[in-house]
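We read letters as residues; the fold follows as tokens. A sample entry reads:
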Amino acid sequence: MTQQKFSIGLSQINNSFSGANYLPYSTGLLQVHAEKHLKEPDRFEFLLPLYKRCKVDDGVKHFNSADLVGFSLYVWNELLSLEILRGLKKSNPEKLLICGGPQVPDNAEEFLRKNPQIDIAVHGEGENTFLKILEAYPKNDWSDIPGISWIDPSGKFITHPKSDRMRDLSVIPSPYLENVFEPLMSLDSNAEWLALWETNRGCPFACTFCDWGSAIADKVFRFDMDRIYQEMDWFSQKKIEFIFTCDANFGILPRDLDIAQHAAENKERYGYPKALSVQNTKNATERAYQTQKILSDSGLNKGVTLSMQTVSQQTLEDIKRHNISLETYDELQRRFTRDGVITYSDLILGLPGETYESFAAGVSSLIANGQHNRIQFNNLSVLPNAEMADPDYIVTHGIELVKSKILNIHGFQESSEDDIVEMQDLVIGTKTLPQDQWRKVRAFSWMTGLLHFNKLLQIPLILLHRQTGVPYHEMIEMFMGVDSAEFPLISEIRDFFLERAKSLQKGGPEFHHSPEWLDILWPDDEFIFIRLATEGKLDKFYEESKKILSSIISSVDAESDREILFEALKVNQALIKLPNQPEDDEIETQYNILDVYYDTIRGGTLSLEKVPSTHTIKRSQKTWSDWETWCREVVWWGNKKGDYLYGSHSSEKYYAGHY
């Protein structure tokens, strides 16, 4: 008698990034683990996974022949996945539909009652749970399966506690090495694939905004080194350009140095991967430094991200991040700057305990400590399994939320024929940062990006800070407080930022869509930079900026520095990269302005001296013949490093949605 074979469909929908797609790693793990450990693997066959966004009807058709379908839910695919699941249940009520992933709440009763198309919700690690669900199919006796919830036929909600975490990760085969993705990749030999990669699981930290550590807050368990090396070799041989490492704290283990070195050697030998994106460990200063130095020296990263999220001690307490040392970040910043390794800093707007004053002062301290490439100012969204989503936590900290579309920086304004747009719960105010202050913080962040990190005024700001000691945030606040009659252009920019912040609080988009300039979503500070340049307003911008910064000199009685300021402004404007400038230029100064500027951003303390100098601006080395090319190669691709001045280089392709 021929045994009945059941078809399994798996879905891990991700966005496409500049035409490239991630291989569906989580579904690959479920498939390869089941194929190895099922008692009767021949009872099942796996269909090709669903890995990118599509129409609901196409998603339903994709799994038309499946008897059982599992969806991995993330914030960027939840609503589309739920609609496809609804269509699947409507087309065949007997189809068993399972959901797991970070968007499945640990307390799933409300979620399941709102989504009756879902038969089983899976909590925590999915490999063993999914295996047991398959073993129970089609009788569907789930009575002894841990980590699941469901509504039984009588309408009763049933939930089982999570099982212990998997300590021996070697029992999970590698979907890469077992060639699980070969059928998918063979469909289009020209497709560009991105890879997700684990070398360990676990996070010892318990940050309240994160559903990573707060869901685990436990030991780090490791995949074995032979597997890791072989997977890296697979990536290289398959010419995978970009790898996103899913480890919560890369560099936390001594062996991470060896992993980074192997990746660097592979890039040297094969040319791939071209980039290895990692989440840096929080406290292991020396190891973090050595690991990131290897990645930087090999060109595997575009810079080191220092994710402090806040520098407020009160906020660190409120978000349970007090066991992470800010001194670690300060030391790493200084060492990387000294050794020429590019760094970026992450700050989150609207964390509990943060005030406008603490946030602005924190930005100032980061810049003063040497962060001149980029601070990425991220809005705070609340994830369902993070402690921050707990109703008591929300009440305690006065957290105010609004539904907001999930958009990718520098991505396209994608429209869905099914009108399904993924949403997030965005924080727009807290007890310590009421809504009016949140708007002020958001606008201040954009203004800081425009003036300092987009490099429009970075040289005079650095020189003024060095000469007068005026903190960076106080100088930036001068631009936020201008009189509209005296400074019509700067006040227009300020008002634009404030109105955009108000729009966000009403559920408006996080980025500014510009149909004219590449038809993509721009950070608001970059959009203003583009407008100033393309509308011929840079001269007016520098004219008004000169008056504002001059008033700072007057306020601190530093008249001797006025000539220095004027020269710094002249040099900064001359260095801004713009299209249609094929000829080199020369600029004369009475002070060693550029020497001091470059020395400062490298962590030095060179003294400013009156040394007449002539500087050649080598514009002919790289030119842009039109505004669209300039928008793409300078403003977009130069975003992370702030490569907006002649003398800096960043013309490499950069994936949308990746900071």
Summary: DSSP finds 23 helices and 23 strands in the chain. Residues 6-171 form a domain with the Rossmann fold fold (CATH 3.40.50.2300). The CA atoms of residues 2 and 43 lie 10 Å apart.
